[in-house]
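Quick check before the chapter quiz. The format below is the same one you will see on the exam, so make sure you can read both the input and the output lines.
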Amino acid sequence: MTTLLVIAKEPLPGRVKTRLTPPFSPREAAGLAEAALADTLDAVARTPARRRVLVLDGAPGPWLPAGFEVVRQCAGGLDERLAAAFAGCTGPALLIGMDTPQVTPELLTVDFADCDAYFGPAVDGGFWALGLAEPDPGLLRGVPMSTALTGAAQRARLAGLRVRDLPCLRDVDTAYDADLVAKEAPAGRFAAELSRLGGAGGR
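Here is the expected output.
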């Protein structure tokens, strides 16, 4: 079975979802980040897996469900931190972030029987998921992160592998993203928190 990895930051005001401020305050943005993380971890908890690992920058809180191992993120750029997350795995692994609360167990249930990798592109040009049948940190190190070309650069690193592409999802980066993602998953904690704050449209 697959190891499921979630790379995340502790949802503290001023440290997460800074592009949501404005229109939201740092505290409100942190509340949205916590809701997104909780939705993500809930989906992972409901997905069959060999291990469930939270690769965390910060300390775990009440939003962490049972059944997860918690590993501290290493120092360095995002490419190094993603590489280190895979380096801690033996056997197939799928890594996602905390920015896609609309993710479902169906999306995360992957089978490497006839492929070497899974790649989930994001609307903003990045990627929301990367799965490797044989985790190789070298496939991530040196990939330029947080740019409009990140996804293309990471996908190019998989050349020569049998790759299955997952659906393209929208990350929650801006208030505009938040509204659209909440509509995709209206029953989730993220949508409820956004609604409690009055949404982004009226701000």
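If your answer matched, good. The mean pLDDT is 96.
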